[in-house]
Write a structure and sequence with these properties.
The structure is a single chain. The protein is of the alpha/beta class. The protein has two domains: about 5-350, Alpha-Beta Barrel (TIM Barrel); about 370-454, Immunoglobulin-like, CATH 2.60.40. Helices cover about 30% and strands about 25% of the residues. It has helices spanning about 5-20, 35-40, 45-55, 70-75, 75-85, 110-125, 180-205, 245-250, 265-280, 315-330, 345-350, and strands spanning about 30-35, 60-65, 90-95, 135, 210-215, 235-240, 240-245, 255-260, 290-295, 335-340, 375-380, 385-390, 395-400, 410-415, 420-425, 435-440, 445-454. The protein has an eight-stranded parallel barrel, surrounded by six helices. A four-stranded antiparallel sheet has the order 14-13-16-17, with helices on one face. Helix 1 crosses helix 7 and helix 9 packs across helix 10 (about 315-330). The longest helix is centred in the middle third of the chain and has 25 residues, at about 180-205. It is globular, with a radius of gyration of 23 Å.
């Protein structure tokens, strides 16, 4: 199944946003889930604790759990926080996820509502205050009987613990559909459709879309003893095509995070990540998702699954060593992009506990005076050339145009000027049609602008 032109172009340019700040092949993304967002945003001491730890642990991305009202009622607090993150080169994602968002229960309407809330927030915020993307953390095996829209009879429509081969095909055996097999098939299809639709919403608004995915859906069940039931890949039926579920999901997302939670990296994590990485390696570089592995630090999960539950590894030093092992074992894959940490509460409390609450300052070079509002790029869309104008700039600058495949297409060096205003004409006539990133680099934090070439 081929992606629509829109999704392929959207995925490509969104990948460029990532490439623009992760420029070295040996520099890996390091993401951190934050579920207790309301305890952090707008609380100076907690924001400082989180951002100082991000700095100490080289965190590049934060996934902030949101509800539709959270951002709307705290817009200024989010703007202030994200602006601090932007200054520290940390990308901020909105995030939501719940078992009830599958169609056998509440359906995805509430999920899309949160995405649209983020889109609305971005439209009212400056570039440095905006969310970079949205992360979906919807997991379809939880027996979640909470919420008015949930029927207890549908709480295990996945039939957790049964292999695909062991599912009944007899009418009346299903909780949601007629048969148990149809229950599971429908949930798998639901996940792909939900990812497709969520990605479409995000891409229309210039956001990336990420998902967190069980490590065992490929049939490699090594993360937890109770997950050993699934020994063959799950499949999805979508738009007339049957495909392994993980491959179908990759058709639409920009980032695919494998919940490879285990302290044994060589024999467990590497196996859970093998199939998704191998498949992603075969996809065109411009359209394939970034693949991340992940570690668990939350307490009370299980021994050998979470670092918190696995003495003597229940400390930041061991967890960081585990992260370095992830990169060592998986970094040879072209599609591998880094490690996710689940989650802030667990990581914060790992010894030594995150305790730095010093105020965050953010002034670097001319960062305080050069903002995206002072950068103009016209025409956009462009045909033969673009005119770049930057106000209040006395510094030397490097202009880089990055292509859809992540490859640098144009580099122009502009010397320092004495008038404080840069004007440059850039020839783009030989570029292929599509979306590009123009990056300004100098004695300030990099600035980037998207433009379309006809």
């Amino acid at each position: 199944m081929k992606k629509s032109i829109f999704l392929r172009i959207g995925t490509a340019v969104l990948a460029l946003l990532f490439i623009s700040t992760i420029t070295s092949a040996t520099t890996y993304q390091k993401s951190l889930w934050v579920w207790n967002t309301t305890d952090v945003i707008g609380v100076t001491i907690e924001e400082n604790r989180l951002l100082n730890e991000c700095n100490a642990s080289s965190i590049t991305d934060l996934y902030l759990y949101l509800q539709s009202g959270t951002v709307t009622t705290n817009q200024v607090a989010f703007q202030n926080f994200i602006e601090k993150c932007t200054c520290k080169n940390i990308r901020v994602w909105g995030m939501d996820g719940w078992r009830g968002y599958f169609s056998d229960q509440c359906g995805p309407g509430g999920f899309y509502k949160v995405i649209n809330t983020v889109i609305s927030y971005n439209s009212k915020s400056t570039a440095k205050q905006q969310f970079f993307g949205f992360a979906g953390d919807n997991e379809f095996v939880y027996q979640d009987a909470s919420g008015d829209c949930v029927s207890p009879s549908k709480s295990d429509a996945f039939h957790y613990g049964s292999t695909d081969a062991g599912l009944s095909k007899t009418a009346g055996s299903g909780f949601w559909k007629s048969t148990a097999q149809q229950d599971r098939d429908s949930l798998c299809t639901d996940w792909v459709k939900q990812s497709h639709d969520a990605a479409f919403l995000c891409h229309q608004a210039g956001l990336q879309y990420s998902i967190a995915v069980y490590g065992w859906i490929t049939g490699t069940s090594y993360s937890h003893a109770s997950m050993g039931f699934q020994n063959t890949p799950l499949y999805a039926y979508y738009k007339g095509e049957k495909k392994e579920l993980y491959k179908a999901l990759m058709d639409y997302v920009d980032e695919y995070v494998i919940m490879s939670y285990h302290t044994n990296v060589a024999n467990k994590v590497a196996l859970m990540c093998k199939d998704p990485l191998s498949y992603a390696n075969t996809l065109p570089a411009a359209t394939r998702p970034r693949i991340l592995s992940a570690i668990e630090t939350f307490c009370g999960v299980d021994q050998y699954v979470s670092y918190c539950d696995t003495p003597p590894q229940n400390n930041k030093s061991s967890a960081n060593y585990g992260i370095s092992q992830h990169i060592s074992y998986l970094g040879g894959n072209e599609s591998y992009s880094g490690v996710g940490i689940h989650d802030w509460v667990g990581w914060k409390d790992l010894s030594p506990a995150s305790s730095n609450t010093a105020n965050i300052t953010c002034v670097s070079g001319i960062e305080a005076v050069l903002s995206l509002s002072e950068i103009q790029l016209t025409p956009n869309p462009a045909t033969n050339q673009v005119e770049l104008t930057v106000g209040n700039l006395f510094e030397a600058v490097t202009i880089t145009v990055i292509g859809m495949n992540g490859v640098t297409q144009i580099v122009t060096q502009i010397p320092a000027n004495s008038v404080g205003k840069l004007h440059s004409t850039i020839d783009v006539a030989n570029l292929s049609s599509g979306l590009y990133l123009l990056k300004l680099s100098g004695n300030f934090n990099d600035k980037t602008i998207k433009f379309m070439k006809h």
